[in-house]
Amino acid sequence: xxVEEQTILPQFVSSSVQVVxxxxxxxxxxxKLYVIGAIALICQLLEKSxxxxxxxxxxxxxxxxxxxxxxxxxHISKQLASLGATVVIACRHKAEADDAIAKIKEDCHNANxxxxxxxxxxxxxxxxxxxxxLSTKWPLHILINNAGIMLAPxxxxxxxxxRHVQVNHLSHALxxxxxxxxxxxxxxxxxxxxxxxxxxxxxxxxxFDPKTFEEKQPHDWSYSPHNAYAASKLAIxxxxxxxxxxxxxxxxxxxxxxxxxxIVNTGLYHNVHWSISCLMDILKELFFMSPxxxxxxxxxxxxxxxxxxxxxxxxxxxQKVGSSTLSKLPSLQEDVYTKTxxxxxxxxx
Length: 349
Ligand SMILES: NC(=O)c1ccc[n+]([C@@H]2O[C@H](COP(=O)([O-])OP(=O)(O)OC[C@H]3O[C@@H](n4cnc5c(N)ncnc54)[C@H](OP(=O)(O)O)[C@@H]3O)[C@@H](O)[C@H]2O)c1
Description:
The chain is α/β, with parallel strands linked by helices and 349 residues long. It has helices spanning 3-46, 71-82, 94-107, 123-135, 163-186, 210-213, 225-249, 274-287, 291-303, 330-343, and strands at residues 62-66, 86-91, 112-117, 142-145, 193-198, 254-260, 314-316, 319-320.
């Protein structure tokens, strides 16, 4: 055998093995995401929605809802406004926010809702948003980190991070840290200011390697938008637990919890593959939860008097539920917290 053939053949075999491995992993991530989604949907259909009554008035309170103009976020904004809160809808498009505000005011005449521009794909936009909010001198009692993207094709943000990681997790972590001091000073007498992070049941199937968390993702078959979404939702949970521990150690008057809102009929599914989008549309209409009901389960965590001292918990259907074994590993929580701070260019204490 010629020398050239001796070196080219093993290289060809090893790169073929790599391609096959990546394709198998890709398919596995797709299957895992749909299986956990189907199981969660069946459980949701079998379980009764928890009745939520008598949430207290939120007048004289201020809330920020990211992605508050559509989907679940719209109903969170609307329900908080109808409880009397001043609501800041933090989203990308003014026209969309204006429509949402008009709809909210139609149903709730005294609603106090305003728009402030926020693009979570840009740390600069997050910093500008926080500076603008802080310049109003309004207090901040509730921060709902709701906005999210799912199954977006590969893409990097202007800050150089994979999109799911930045939009769903990193930018919300940055926003929380920029507003924490304001929340601390706004906490009501004998109570707490509350951060609610919207995670998802799909965190259960995330494959997560903290070593590669901060690395640039390759744009090839080894990139899985299915795992990128699930991993971002796991990162949110891990960060929530680590942050809660720190807040408690500091004797802070801020609490932080995470929520799975349900399997909900919203625009989040617009990136599902065309081959199943028709079936998905039918399933959504027939079986998925309404965004109104999902919004209520988030607003419950943000306002219920029963949860005044609750922090570091994960909720679904207005009940504390267990999260995945991986999410409960303190070492992984600390690792993700530290890496998140490094990625945001902050100190981690
Ligand atoms: N629907 C479900 O079944 C389900 C299940 C579990 C968890 N969740 C979670 O629930 C949350 C709300 O989702 P949804 O179902 O209401 O979906 P949705 O209708 O697609 O709403 C997502 C929101 O996020 C906003 N958003 C996306 N990219 C953004 C960016 N770069 N900067 C600022 N805002 C951005 C969107 O605003 P634009 O209009 O500007 O794009 C929109 O308001 C997400 O975190 C999602 O992961 C949903």
